[in-house]
Amino acid sequence: MATILTIGCDHTFLFSGGLSSINWDETMTEEKSDKKIHLPVTGMVCDGCVTSVKDALESVAGGVKKADVSLEKKEAEVTYDPAQATKEKLKKAVKNAGYDVRD
Questions:
Q1: What's the Rg (C-alpha) of the chain?
Q2: C-beta of residue 45 within 8 angstroms of C-beta of residue 20
Q3: 33 CB neighbour count, 10 Å cutoff
Q4: Looking at the domain assignment, is residue 13 inside a domain?
Q5: pLDDT digits (tens, 9 = 90+) for 25-81
Q6: Contact (CB, 8 A) for 71 and 50
Q7: Which of 8, 13, 27, 96 sees the fewest Cβ atoms within 10 Å?
């Protein structure tokens, strides 16, 4: 017997093992092959900078699944598909937007 679980309005999952087989510690919305990286971004001073960096990262052709940019932390947390994006491509996108990434 299959169980259908709907989380919010965007995510529906079909489980053949029932709800007890779910590992709730896993991020259910990301592919297993996706990677997450923290990029320390320098040069951001306002919310407009945050938007520019986020837009630049999300423009990396098909590779970026999610980009969260924090002005307070001066970093970007990026979830990406390593088959379509690399750390170097992400860094280049940030640099092309006028900011820098510390190594």
A1: 17
A2: no
A3: 8
A4: no
A5: 323 345 578 999 999 999 999 999 999 999 999 999 888 999 999 999 999 999 999
A6: yes
A7: 8
- Is the Cβ–Cβ distance between 26 and 32 less than 8 Å? no
- In the prediction, which pLDDT does 11 show? 44
Residue 70, phi then psi, degrees to nearest 5: -115, 120
CA 15 to chain centre: 25
Backbone angles phi, psi at 69, to 5 degrees: -115, 130
Contact 77, 89 (CB under 8 A): no
What CATH code is carried by the domain that includes residue 84? 3.30.70.100
- Helix H, strand E, coil C: the string for the chain is CCEEEEECCCEEEEECCCHHHCCCCCCCCCCCCCEEEEEEEECCCCHHHHHHHHHHHHCCCCCEEEEEEECCCCEEEEEECCCCCCHHHHHHHHHHCCCEECC
Domain boundaries, position 57? 31-101
Residue 8, pLDDT score: 41
